Structures are given as structure tokens and as C-alpha cells.
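Ticket opened by: R.M.
Priority: normal
Category: complex prediction / small molecule

The reporter submitted a protein together with zinc ion and asked that the result be attached to this ticket for the collaborator who will pick it up next week. Submitted input follows.
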Amino acid sequence: MRLLLVLITLLLSSLSTLAQSGKVDMDYYLPTDVTYNLNIPTPESVLGYTPGEWHVSHDKLSEYMRTLAAASDRMTIESRGTTFEGRPILLLTVTSPSNHANIENIRKEHVKLVEDGSASLSTSSMPIVVYQGMSIHGNEPSGANAGLIAAYYLAAAQGPKIDALLDNTIILFDPSFNPDGLQRFAYWANTNKSININADPQDREYDEVWPGGRTNHYWFDMNRDWLPVQLPESKARIKTFHNWYPNILTDHHEMGSNSSFFFQPGIQSRTHPLTPALNQELTKQIGNYHAAALDKIGSFYYTEESFDDFYYGKGSTFPDINGGIGILFEQGSSRGHAQETENGLLEFPFTIRNQFTAILSTLEAAQGMRKQLLDYQRDFFKNARGEKGSGAYAFGSEKDAGSAYHLAEVLKRHQIKVHEVAQDFSQDGANFKKGMSYIVPKNQRQSRLIKAMFEKRTTFQDSLFYDISAWSFPLSFGVDFTENASLSKAGNEIQDLKRKPTPAVGTSTYAYLMEWHDYYTPKALNTILNKGIRAKVGMQKFSVEGISYDYGTIMIPVQNQSLNKQELASFINEVAQDANVTIKAVSTGLTEGIDLGSNQFRALEPARVAMIVGEGINPYDAGEMWHLFDTRYNMRITKIDTKDLGRADLSRYTDIILPNLWGNAINKGNTDKIKQWVRSGGTLIGYKNVANWFERNKMLDIDFVKTKNPAKNVSFEQRRDFTGAQVIGGAIFEAKQDRSHPINFGYTGDKVSLFRNTTLFIKADSTSYKNPIQYTKSPLQAGYISKINLKAIPETRPFVHQSAGRGEVILFTDNTNFRAFWYGTNKLLMNAIFFGSEM
Ligand SMILES: [Zn+2]
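Result attached by the on-call engineer:
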């Protein structure tokens, strides 16, 4: 078999595109049924090579797109912002010169299709809008590299066929969904390329260094952020999307090297129930165009057997709840320049040509189905208006303005209408306060999208999910919520969403008090402690000067600080303004409850936090925390690579975070080193399957609930679905909280919603106060869980704390920072950091 593979490989390489020279010709890619305008610069004239010979960096890609737009009257280019690394987030708008002259009117007419009164519009000669996006995963580069050829083709191709295409289509061409990831990957593939292309899969070229180019700067999978919209690249995309409401949106990816080419539809039974059935039928019809085009060039493909349209946070699914059709493409990856595979030699240019073919077949489908897709979009919104409920949703928080504000911000990004609360009201056991709460009328254009964001679904047609099965935003933001508010509670619609001004802090001669509820209190505390100002945390409730203060209130004494009374007053006011939190000046230490001089106020020390990253650590989990500390709380977090752990001086840190571990990333020597650091006073915080590492190394005494899943009447063919059904891909569970425990400081209710994507169930401790967070008796709030796991989870504990020597070991089995939109549980991690030694 092996010998055969080698023979085939040798045979194929003699016929291959790159051969040994690494040279490719544009003729390999370009259709011959049109002529090409010689005044349009070719990719080679700008890049210095033909696409496929090297992996294009984002810098070069930008240069070519700008050059092309300058030379062609069919294209305009804009930068819609910058990535975390400062790269432009580009968009080309491609259409006929006459459409360009009238583009804003065309856009306005198109958007009328989604509004009330669309019935009178004629779609018979209206252009269709197609949004084509490349390589959201930076190390799936055939999309972005195919984009070079597609952009050239759209600028240079001539003849009646191309004229008709440009007259009837507005193409929003997004040449790189992930500029930072693409740059990172291009660097890897190019720096490891040999002159004599080496297709040996074991070559370093095909095994990127951690964390790889898939993700963005903070290691996020951006193809999960279309709904939460927390990252700059997504903000730009979503703005373009809602500005235009494209009829088709394509998302060009890569998969394993032994695979062929995939296009949607995916697995039909896993389509989200809010997506109309017609959406999938149209997807299938569009698929016929891809099949015909790939047949023509002899490329193999498959459809309907994998991937799905369930989670609306993916690029190919998001359009489905917005009246469009999302299409996922997956090309078997050459990863570098060429690789031996089961299908023979897989060369980079071949992968580019397949993507380019799919780009053109999409445009052909858009021509062929233009009126059908425009009418579908109009009907989608018409039907949505027909099913609109009356009344409104309300959400907010009495004590945490920050989280409620950020949820309102996400809704505004999706052009959802959000109103102020006219006056305070109570409903479903929650108080909705003016200035701290928001009203979302059900009767509005985006009613389906709102439903998709707010609902709590627990029954499903299928038991397998490509991604998460639940994402209910009121739960992830940890805000009070009702879906039964009266519209009469709504005040003005909010046009320009702004934070409520923070009250100025008065000057105190005695102490300052900050309750711990607002999302941004850790940011404020960190600034205070880093300035060398002494602060303490109150372990109990109290009231002073007529105001009650909850568990976890931060107290800053005026006496004996490095700043004098006036300096301290202005510093504290600055901190409050910067973090948007309320801090109060008090003039006495005598309270009802613990007095301010009580030992129940515990001194805090500045947090010096490190996180273990690198080979063997899940980059998503690590990146979410890096992003949280760096962009939300302005806190420094040192990223220590697993390979450097042996020589790192751990005494520099008060806290070390160990994100989800893969395999044996931490050897015996480093394990002992970390244990020693804990015993001498460090707080070690582990997540998810670090539980097993803690148990193995006797750092936590934990008892797992064991589940059994005997296969009865399961055939060989069904075996994958059978085991897959036991996975918790991502669901939401309710836990009760003991609010007097420092891990729960800052929470106002006695319940918290946790995001979970593991099946680690830890038995509750027999000592009740050692279970400060414990799943309720029926904890499933939203999402899919198998019957076996649903029986295992009740009353287990997702949080474990144990002291060891002078230090602490803390475990979370659930992700408190999921994809940057799980605002509701970020506080748990911050409590572990700041109050770990008070537990
Ligand atoms: Zn991908």
C-alpha cells in the first residue's frame, strides 16, 4: 500500500502544476470563455509571483487589492477598521461602472426588501447582493489566495457574460476575514518552503507552531463570533452585512488533507428550527451550480454528509436567520505548498483553483436564481412580521450596569431596536430600573434574530451538533430578563448607546467603599492595588450612613496611604470614572454589621498573574483569558510557554492559571515546581480537564461521577452518532450559589448560569459549605445533553477549592470566559484571582 502510494505520488508529481520548479501559470486558473483587459494589473505584476507559488501575506494581499481597485472602474475599496495588530479590514465592492454611479440608491432599494412595505417593490430587474468572504481561519489559505485570482478576474474579464454579471450583481468581496491569522500562517508556510517542493507530510512546513494561524490575535475562532460580535473583524463584517443584507454569503474554508471539497447543504436534520425549510432547498439548488463547475474541471466533492446550519454564530449560518443563504465551502488542505495524500499529490494551486471555481459558480447561481433569492428574502421578512409577538423583552441589572450595557451594545450591532425603560418596574421577580435596564419590542424587523438570541431551547431533532447547542444571551450576560414586558414600559428608542455617567466621588477623611457587583469593579480594584494603595474586602454585609453594602465590598481607608487625603480623593474619582463604577466616600467606621476596622475586612494584595500557554494547552481557552485581562480589565497577564516553564521564576506571581490541557503538557519536574510554588503561597487556578491532572497529582481530592453507556442495538454504521450523542458540545446549566463564599462575591441572586462543554461531573462534598457553587436538581437551562449525562449532572459541583500549605488550588470544570460573550461568569475568575486566599 505504502509502495503504491509512493508510486502514485511520483507519477502524479511528474504531471503536477508546481513540479519541482514551483512555477504556476495563470492559464491554469483562468477560464478561456472570456478575454482579459491587458490594462488590469495581474497578481504577478504586484506580488512578484503567480498565486499558488507562495502563500500570500496580508500585506501583499492588501497591496494587490488596492492596486486593482485603483486600476478598475468596476471596483471600490474601503478599510472598515483595523485588526488588533493594526491591519486594515478591507472590503471591495464590485459591480458595473453604471451601478457604481448609483450605488447608494441601489443599496437603499435593496434594503427596502427587508422592511415593511416591500410588497410594492419589483425584483424583476433588481441586482442581487453577494457577500464573498475568504479564509476566516488564517491557516486555511486557499480561499484568500483564490481571492487574488477572483478579484483579477472580476476586474479584467471582458465580454457580454461578464457585463451581464456585473450589471445584475453587487459583489461585496472580503479578501481576508482574518488578516492577522493569514499573515501568521503565510509566514510559517513560506519560511519553511524548500526550493524543491517537499510534499512529505512530516516536513515542518505542514506542522505549524502553536497557536497556528487559524485564530485571530487573541486566539479566537472568528467563525464563532458572527452572533456575539465581540471582535473588531466581526464588528466590521456585521456592519457590512446589515448595511446590505446580502442574498448569498459564502465562507471559504479548508479541512483535512485527505478530504476532497465540500459545499453546503450540510446535514439537514441539524438545521436550526428557526431557519425556513426553503432556505435549505435553495442552498441545495445553489449546490447544483458548484457541482456542475467542479465536474467540469474534474474535481471531486461531497455534500450533505457533514457540517450543519445550527449555530447562528458561524458565517455560513448567520445569513440563514437574516433572510439570506449562507454557504460553507471546505477544501482539503495542502496546508503548505504540496502534500502527499490518499488522493495523490495535493498541491496548493489545485486547492486555490477549486475555491476560485466555487467563487465563480456562486456568482453564476446568483445570476440564475436572482429573482428567486430576492423574493425569498422579501418573504422571509414578510413572514417574520406575520409571526411577530406583541409586547417586549426587558433585560437589565439593578447593580451591574456594565453587563446590561454590553448586551444592549450587541443588539445595536445587529440593528435591533432597543429602548430605554420609561420608569422602574418589577416583573417575573426582577426589578427593571431606569438607566440600568433596556426594552426590546418584539414587533420589529429583526424579530427572528432576536428570538434566536434570546430563546432557551432544550428539545432538538438531532443529538449531534457541529458546534454549541445553546447561546441564550440573557443567560450569558447574567442579566435579569423577562419576555413578557409590556410595551408601555418602553421609553425613547436609543439611537446613540452610551454608558450612564458615573457619579463623582466626594472627598473622604475616613474611607471609600465600592460594592463588587458591576462588571468593571475588578478593573477598578486592579488599578487601585497597582498604585500601591491599600484596600480590603468585606467578608460580610453591613450598612453605613443609611446605605447597605453587600458581601465583597471593597474598602479603601484614607489613613496611612502613600497619597494624601486630597490626592487619594482625586485618584479614587479617576478610577471610578475610568471603570464606570460607583465608589462612595464615607465619614465613619461605625456600621450596622462589621465595622470598617473589623478583622472581617481582609487586606488584598496586587494580583501578579501568569498563565501557562503553548504546546499542549488549548489556545481558545487561553486566548479568551488573555483577551479578558488585557482588553476588559487592563490587567497584565504573563504568558509563560510550556517549553519555558522549567526555567521560569514562579515567585514573581501570586496567581497562575492553567487553561484546558491537551495530553501531557506539563512534565514531572514542572509539576513538582508548581506544587512547591502553591505550598509557598501561590493560587493555582485550573480549568476543565486540568481536573484530571489535579487528581492524578494529588492536588485536589475529587470524586468523579462515572457514567456508563452500553451500546445495545447500535450498528457499526451508527457507532459515531452513538458516541457523539454523549458529547456536551456547549450547553447552559444553572447552579445555586452560596453568596457568602468569596467565589460568589458580586453576585446578587442565588443562581448563576454556566456554560459547559465538558462531561466532567464532580460529586458534591459532604461538607455543605465546600460546595459554594452547585448544580441545581434540574440544571439544564438551554442546549443539548444526553439522558445519561442529564442524570449525572444534578447537584454535582463545577467549582472546587482546597488549600495546600500556604497556597490554594482552585478548579472550574466549566468555561467562565467562553468566546468573550459570557460576561455573566467572568466575575468568578476575578474572584478566584483577588479573593483566592480568603477562601
Ligand atoms: Zn475553517
